[in-house]
Design brief:
Elements: H1 2-16, E1 20-29, E2 40-43, E3 57-59, E4 65-71, E5 76-80, E6 87-90, E7 96-101, H2 105-108, E8 111-113, E9 118-120, E10 128-132, H3 144-147, E11 155-159, E12 168-172, E13 185-188, E14 191-192, E15 224-230, H4 233-236, E16 247-252, E17 258-271, H5 284-295, H6 310-317, H7 321-327, H8 334-344, H9 350-354, E18 358-370, E19 374-386, E20 393-406, E21 411-426, H10 437-443, H11 475-480, E22 482-502, E23 505-524, H12 529-537, E24 539-542, E25 545-548, E26 554-578, E27 582-608, E28 613-615, E29 633-653, E30 657-666
Helix pairs in contact: 5-8
Length: 667
């Protein structure tokens, strides 16, 4: 029975395709009428009951002819050839077919997005580079400015500092200005963004540890489709003077017609702790030997006070200074010898105390798809980066939504929303250059411990200060008792509408909003160099007596920055080919934009981090003006508005010769 059942199944399967028919034909180029050798004819993917039929298709011969035997139930076949538009052919009415395929011209064209228009690259005469985000995608990159590092010829992207989430300084074709901003203009889906300046002095000693945010940093690299760099004056002229340093045009991903696609990605990346072995710094014992050599040199008068170096201080305190210089080690007291020998085996590993190997992570989820009338792309992303310097970090949460609607055959409407919230954390290191962790770990004496025997923090008196005030400093104390935090919330919305009037003529308008809110807080407890420095700076003399007007306690500072801009533009585009040789592209429009920013700075002294309270400051009555350092409240407000007119024109003859020009007027 088992053999009989198997035989019946095989016979049934063969019988299902017993009713076949044969079609034949020739496949030709639509324009040249030349046969397309190797063109394929295969059963349509939506044909039911033919999924298991073999063969699924055939290939045209040298003359473009083909013969195909296929199931009777098949009504449609697909004809395709590389570089040509594929067609679906109805074979239900006849068996002999003459098929013409058209070259896929649109697929061969290189389209450039300038932020104002989409135009074929062959019709431009300027220096423009376009790169797909998928080609330069990297794991563990926080923002698009970091993503561009080393990717584009003629453009340099370098980190402003090594902190998590820090901005990159970008230069396109070198430096264009000595005094003004040198940063390029960023444009996202046609909306020029404000707030992307990385100051020329951002990396100097007074700013290197400052937390900073740029509006482009909030964009998730996973949401980017392509990036276009406008390099020379011919390319950037359409944006006016603000584009003197180049333009970077970012195009975000959009949904495409088809079934919903769900994409989830997760990555963990490790940033290793810096390796300082190659610095070849002295250990505790080597430093002791070095200081003993210096202390034994009586001709080194710069150490005549015997106050620099722990060895010199020990010898001076025990009255062994000249004894050591005249008679050597064996002649000094046992107390001095014991104290010096103890230094050889003491000391903290300041690099391990300061740095770490950081484990970081990022996640992304996107949904995209669409129908004939509506396409959508929605995504959410989370990025978390811990710094290799302990106590530093950066995290960001993103939400993106792109919706395109076809209201009619001529009218299209689009809505884009890009929102993000980020947080950067650190500690205060901006009081003096030596308080920077990189500087301190190299300068502190290797025999110096973090804490004294009684549990108090140990201070190295040999650390040099660049100011006239030198209060005690210990990096571990500073990082443990201070906090530096920057929170950013950003929302960008873009509404677009375009209408195809006639063939070749399109009217479009776009309205964009950019809202940025930043909150910065610097807090130093009383037991910090930062607070002690402020207190000593408040010294003044009254009736011959030195006094301090700041109350005891910590220091707290808050900055609140609010930025808002709108950008509206309306334009017309005309593109037409005449007599198959003359290509004309013309675009013109008007743009209105306005922005305003508000900055509020508060500062409090005598701060108690447990009670969250400050104390009043009694400035000297003789003062007529309070120094900037001690101003308790400050507010600034800036508002700008512009009206602009712009246009471009391109003429190409016979796909060989092109003339292109652009114009803009701002007022």
């Amino acid at each position: 029975m088992r053999k009989l059942f198997t035989s019946l199944c095989v016979v049934s399967a063969i019988g299902a395709y017993a009713q076949t028919r044969e079609i034949s034909g020739q496949i030709l180029d639509r324009d040249t009428k030349e046969p397309l050798v190797g063109a394929t004819v295969f059963i349509g993917p939506n044909e039911k009951g033919a999924a298991d039929y073999n063969p699924q298709g055939v290939i045209a011969d040298y003359d473009g002819n083909f013969t195909f035997s296929l199931p009777q139930s098949v009504k449609h076949v697909v004809v395709s050839y590389l570089g040509y538009e594929a067609i679906t052919l109805d074979i239900s009415k006849k068996t002999r077919h003459q098929i013409f395929l058209a070259p896929a011209v649109n697929e061969l064209q290189d389209i450039v997005i300038t932020g104002y228009q989409k135009i074929e690259k062959r019709k431009l005469t300027s220096a423009i580079t376009t790169v797909a985000a998928a080609e330069i995608k990297q794991v563990g990159v926080a923002s698009v400015d970091q993503l561009l590092d080393g990717q584009i010829a003629g453009m340099v992207s370098t980190p402003a500092n090594g902190g998590p989430g820090s901005p990159n300084r970008i230069r396109i074709r070198g430096t264009a200005s000595l005094n003004g901003t040198q940063d390029p203009l960023w444009v996202v889906d046609g909306l020029p963004l404000e707030g992307n300046e990385v100051g020329a002095n951002f990396s100097d000693k007074d700013n290197i540890d400052n937390l900073s945010n740029t509006s482009i940093a909030g964009l998730n690299p996973d949401d980017i489709e392509s990036i276009t760099i406008l390099k020379d004056a011919a390319a950037t002229a359409i944006y006016g003077a603000r584009a003197a340093n180049g333009v970077i045009v970012v195009t975000t991903k959009k949904g495409k017609e088809g079934k919903m696609k769900i994409n989830f990605n997760a990555a963990t990346f490790i940033t290793t702790k810096p390796n300082f072995d190659k610095l070849n710094l002295m250990n505790a014992s080597e430093k002791v030997d070095f200081e003993l050599y210096l202390a034994g040199r009586g001709d080194l008068d710069y150490r005549s006070t015997m106050s620099r170096g722990e060895i010199a201080r020990i010898l001076s305190a025990n009255g062994d200074k000249y004894t050591f210089q005249n008679s050597g080690w064996d002649a000094i007291s046992s107390t001095s010898q014991d104290m010096i020998n103890q230094l050889r085996t003491s000391g903290a590993n300041w690099f391990d105390q300061t740095y770490q190997t950081a484990v970081n992570q990022q996640y992304g989820l996107s949904l995209s798809g669409g129908t004939e009338f509506i396409n959508y792309y929605v995504s959410a992303g989370y990025y978390d980066e811990q710094g290799t310097t302990k106590g530093t970090g950066f995290n960001r949460f993103n939400l993106t939504s792109n919706l395109d609607m076809k209201l009619s055959n001529k009218l299209n409407f689009g809505i884009q929303i890009l929102g993000n919230q980020s947080k950067r954390t650190s500690y205060l290191t901006d009081t003096d250059a030596f308080t920077n962790p990189s500087n301190y770990t190299r300068s502190v004496n290797p025999y110096r411990t973090v804490r004294n025997a009684d549990g108090s923090y140990s201070y190295d008196p040999d650390i040099d200060s660049s100011s006239d005030v030198t209060p005690d400093f210990n990096f571990i104390e500073e990082s443990s008792n201070s906090n530096y935090e920057l929170k950013n919330t950003s929302l960008k919305s873009i509404f677009s509408l375009d209408y195809k009037v006639i063939r070749g003529l399109k009217l479009s308008t776009q309205f964009g909003l950019q809202i940025e809110k930043s909150e910065t807080e610097k807090m130093a407890q009383a037991q910090t160099y930062f607070s002690r420095y402020y207190y000593l700076k408040s010294q003044y003399t009254e009736n011959g007596e030195k006094k301090y007007f700041l109350p005891d306690g910590g220091v707290i500072q808050n900055w609140n920055d609010d930025f808002f801009q709108y950008n509206w533009k309306a334009q017309a585009e005309f593109s037409r080919t005449f007599a198959e040789k003359h290509d004309l592209d013309v675009m013109g429009g008007i743009e209105l934009r306005a922005n305003k920013s508000t900055n509020i700075h508060n500062k409090g002294f005598g701060y108690d981090h447990k009670k969250l309270t400050t104390k009043p400051v009694n400035f000297p009555s003789s003062w007529t003006e309070v120094p900037t350092r001690f101003i308790l409240y400050r507010k600034s407000y800036v508002e700008n508005a512009y009206a602009s007119y712009f246009g471009t024109a391109s003429y190409t003859y016979d796909n060989r010769y092109t003339a292109f020009g652009s114009i803009r007027f701002d007022g």
